[in-house]
Amino acid sequence: MLQAFRVPSFVRLFVISFVVLCGLVLLCYRMAWYEVPATEVAGTYHRASIRFLKVDPLPEKVELRANGTLVLSAADGASIYQGAWTWDEKERIVRVDDPRWDRQIRLRSTLAGPRLSMRVSDLPLELDHPEHDEEVDLVKD
Amino acid sequence: MSALPADTEHEKHGVAALSVLMFLFMFVLAVFPGLKAVEGLTWGASVDFHRDASFVRAVVEGHYGEDPTYLGGSLWYTPMVGWLEALVVWISGLSVDQVLVQMGAYTNLLAPIAFFIMAWYFFGPVRAVVCSAVFLFFIIQQEPGWAVPTYSPRLIPVSFCQWFLYIELILIDRAFRTTRIGPSILAGAGAGISFLAHAAPALISVLIIFLFTMREVVAAVRRKEPSTGWPRFRASMAAGAAFILCSLPLTWIVVGQYGMKVVNRSYFLYNYYGLTLREAEVFFYHNVALINLVALAGLWLVFRRKVADTTGRREMGRWLVLMWFAIATVLMVYSYVVAVLDMNYGVQLPGILPPFHFYFYAKAALIVCAGLAIWECFVWVLKRVRPMLVGVEPSARLKPVVIVFALVAIASTLNYPSYATRRDVFAVRNRNLAFMERTNDGEACVRINAMLPWDAVILCDVELSIWPLLPSARKVVATTRTMGNPYLDQKDRDRDRDLLLLGMQAPRADTGPLLDAYSTTHLLVRPGDLASMPEATRWFPNEVFRDEEYVLLKR
Predict the structure, then answer these.
(1) Angle of helix B356-385 versus helix B313-345 axis, rounded to 10
(2) Cβ distance of A9 and B4 shorter than 8 Å
(3) Which of B163, B253, B445, B519 is the most exposed place for a label (fewest CB within 10 A)?
(4) Torsion of CA B214, B219, B225, B230, to 10 degrees
């Protein structure tokens, strides 16, 4: 394999490839991990449609109010939950005092930018031993 | 590009060098989320971690070979991961639980490395790069890491031990290229060592060796030259002997002591929820995906197309992939049928492992097929755009290789944000963080382990038997069925535990004899439970430990 490096044109190609790939590594890192402050997370979201998974019992509307209040509502407007929320910026997750909703909404990176998603399972994260961690996206209104 | 070396041999070396570079690029990208997933963790929330911690503590405390959960029981779980973890605990001085939860990010890197080596060995460097891209970035999507063959940062046997199969396939190829005994012994030893790590890759390896042996022996008989099959048969017998020898640290106990008689069948009746009919929608959600369609097309290609290469490796690789997929699929279906018949109709067929372990390996074979299909598709397009390449092997030429690598790099980059923040990494990390928060860094388990001797036996309910007891490696009257020794009766233990707990609520004649029968020394309850257990302090008058969540009493 090292014999290839005796040919100058290959060395040039290899170095260029190396530099390009290093650049892509940096680009990937920046696309995946960036800080998202609570002010950016705050807003009103609705549940995106999703194939196959049963998501009807989940809130249709998620309001992460800037004053620190979380309001979850069903499709008919009925309130499902109301309480305080905080944003764990390092872990990119919404913290709520109620174990049912704590750590259920997190932020993940996508090619189109940061996106909130909500666990489909109604089991609190820590008690869900089989790890039903399927998620549905939340779309900002 | 026009100045590239014309010499084909140089081009081949160049392709190899670029393939290594591409693999390193993908490898580095995969490492970042793995390391971030375990950063700062001291405890893992998974029941599998608790079970593994109990076996590691058994080794660390000098009780290798003993069941850490049931007094008088022997080792029943594949021990290699525990050995490795105990070794790192010993070398690093870190706590057992910190090693368990962090080590996987490093050790599991062996999986993509071994996969790449295996794919290169059979199909060449370029196809290996494409297959590895599928393995690392495209097969996992949003499925749990323990259900899909990929790099996942948790050190649990299913995720870690896959590399044994990938290397074992190379050993099998080398064994069947000759009838010399040496390579066969190596292949048998590899399968035996795999068995110490995880039964699934070992079983698939053994069945491949068996079927290849049968194929050659039957061919010899058909040629009416049965004696020509003898050297192969002899070499495979040597492989079998090496397997038995290398697997002795476990088989000595489970065969020698338990006679492989499984009494508690719960372990292999467990199933990944995404493979159950009850949650079929989850299966479709994860598997109705373009990459799986490509993989199936690849499987068809592998099945249909014989490969004529000078080394014969690609043709052998083709056979191995087909056999690997077929065996894993048959075992998955069989294990599924075993579970369904047992749980719904009480019919007890011999069990092997939970079906998802074989789903895992069937998918691993499909990853190879997907990678091959993508390459073939590229070649098909290339030969239509550049007809002068017809009759040329594009994987040996720099120009097409650079193009396909550029496409792989672009696809990996575009997919990377989703991949790097996938659930397998960050939902799991958050579960661990929640667990650390609730348990105050595993305080109760650490204290139980520190205060109680190795042979202390604790009476408690099922939930407490998992946490905080299971990882403490202290004994229990009955744990949850899926974590109980499969060679010891679980039903009696479950019944007796329930009777004993009733005996803590009201006087019962059988309480004393049952406590003695299990050599019970302690009672672990929640503080709130004690009010409904007036008999508890009669049988266990001494308080050993109390916090907001637990009270530990001693006889």
Answers:
(1) 140
(2) yes
(3) B519
(4) -20
Which amino acid is located at B94 in the chain? L
**Mean pLDDT within B32-50:** 95
Side-chain half-sphere CA neighbours of B250 within 13 A? 22
Q: Is residue B415 located within the same domain as residue B464? A: no
What region does B74 belong to: left with phi over 0, alpha with psi -120 to 50, or beta? beta
Quote the tokens at residue A130: 């089989």
pLDDT, greater one: B237 or B229: B237
B401, B18 Cβ separation under 8 angstroms:
yes
* Same-domain pairing of B518 and B413: no
Is the separation of the CB atoms in B123 and B131 below 8 Å? yes
B416 & B494 share domain? no
Is the pLDDT score of B471 beyond 60? yes
Instruction: Please name the residue of chain B whose CA is at the shortest distance from the CA of residue A117.
Output: B423
Angle CA B138–A21–B104, to nearest 5: 50
**What is the pLDDT, as a whole number, of residue B6?**
52
pLDDT of residue B386: 84
Domain count, chain B: 2
Q: Where in the sequence is the domain holding B489, given as residue range(s)?
A: 460-554
Q: Which of A51, A115, A133 to mutate to test the interface with B (most CBs of B within 10 A)?
A: A133
Q: Is residue B154 part of a domain?
A: yes
| pLDDT of residue B1 exceeding 60 | no
pLDDT at A136: 96
Of the candidates A71, A109, A107, A70, the one whose C-alpha atom is nearest the C-alpha of residue A89 is A107
Per residue in B325-350, pLDDT (tens digit) is 999 999 999 999 999 999 999 999 99
Q: Confidence class of residue B5 from pLDDT cuts 50, 70 and 90?
A: very low
Which residues of chain B neighbour A131 with C-beta distances below 8 Å? 46, 144, 427-428, 431
Is B429 part of a structural domain of the chain?
A: no
The one-character DSSP state at B351 is P
- Cα(B131)–Cα(B134) distance, integer angstroms: 5
Q: Do residues B42 and B153 both lie within one domain?
A: yes
Structural domain contains residue B537: yes
Mutation for testing the A interface, residue in B416, B462, B467 having most A CBs under 10 Å: B416
Residues B360 and B474 reside in one and the same domain: no
What ipTM, to 2 d.p.? 0.95
Contact criterion met (CB < 8 Å) for B16 and A106 = no
Structure tokens belonging to residue A41? 């997370």
The residues, ordered by sequence, that sit 6+ positions from B208 with a Cβ below 8 Å of its Cβ are B169, B172, B320, B323, B324, B327
B7-29 pLDDT, tens per residue?
A: 677 888 999 999 999 999 999 99
Q: Answer whether residue B308 shows pLDDT above 90.
A: no
